[in-house]
Design brief:
The protein is an all-alpha fold and 287 residues long. It contains 15 helices and no strands.
Length: 287
């Protein structure tokens, strides 16, 4: 199976997962369960599968956030809402949001969830803490909730692998964003501000990457910088595709088509911002 398949599937899974950050249903669920503010809700809902962990564990797995940003939310979040309550609230809210903005999600779930659950069950969780924690959660009885949970587990599988590649290449969290912004044209402020890095942090990262020969003096990527960025994405895809090899060729060919209608509906709904720090490509419109 070609590694590019993993990227194709990610592009239709990530919109389904991402409603949990941006949909009003999910934001309201975080408030209702007792969490305070958007970022406490973000860190608590995403980290809840790990249990009531301290900030250091979240800093490690949420690699590209400034540690101080994590510490403002964790472990205080667990004093407002226990992880179990957060987990129930997040999946219920995400399923509600998907039903609203992606009416085809229920039909997609019927065909896609059995395939995704086989992929998840057969994946190697070694070195993938967020994936392993999400895989260990009970499967929701609601089929749309199960679709969201499967999308979440597999996007965390990809993310865990991406962090491994970045750290293996000697990049820290801020440097990873600087290289992304330089190579892909994502506005620096979106990545910097959404991940808690200051302008001084950003400029120091620019200087470090320039010293490594990855950026030119003006901040543009060098040939080596673009090559590293391409390598990182290709290696991430190669690691992410492994679990999908349990699918037959026919099943693999069907899967993106099953997921694309609700993903397109989410992208066309306006619920997700563009550009965004997740790296999702430009939105598609409804056919």
């Amino acid at each position: 199976m070609d590694a590019a398949f993993a990227r194709t599937v990610w592009q239709v899974l990530e919109p389904l997962h991402a409603v949990t950050y941006f949909a009003p249903e999910s934001r309201e669920a975080s408030r209702a369960v007792g969490l305070r503010g958007f970022w406490m809700g973000y860190f608590a809902t995403r980290a809840a599968p790990l249990g009531a962990v301290e900030a250091g564990a979240v800093e490690a797995v949420f690699f590209n956030f400034h540690p101080a940003m994590v510490r403002r939310a964790v472990p205080d979040a667990w004093g407002f809402a226990a992880p179990g309550a957060v987990l129930r609230a997040r999946v219920e809210a995400a399923a509600t949001a998907l039903r609203r903005v992606a009416p085809s999600a229920a039909d997609a779930a019927a065909g896609a969830v059995p395939l995704l659950e086989r992929v998840i069950a057969g994946a190697d969780g070694a070195g993938r803490p967020l994936f392993a924690a999400n895989r260990g959660l009970p499967a929701p009885r609601d089929p749309v909730g199960a679709l969201w949970q499967a999308a979440t587990a597999l996007r965390e599988h990809r993310g865990d692998g991406h962090v491994a590649v970045l750290t293996a290449e000697g990049l820290d969290g801020c440097e990873a964003h600087v290289l992304l912004a330089a190579c892909e044209g994502v506005p620096a402020a979106i990545l910097r501000d959404n991940r808690g890095w200051s302008e001084e942090d950003w400029q120091r990262a620019v200087h470090r990457l320039t010293a490594r020969g990855l950026l030119e003096s003006g901040g543009h990527p060098t040939v080596e910088g673009r090559g590293l960025r391409t390598h990182i994405e290709a290696r991430t895809d190669a690691l992410a595709v492994r679990p999908y090899q349990v699918l037959t060729a026919t099943e693999a060919a069907r899967l993106p088509g099953l997921l694309r209608p609700p993903a397109d509906e989410v992208l066309a709904s306006g619920v997700l911002p563009f550009p965004n720090p997740m790296g999702l490509p430009a939105r598609r419109t409804r056919p």
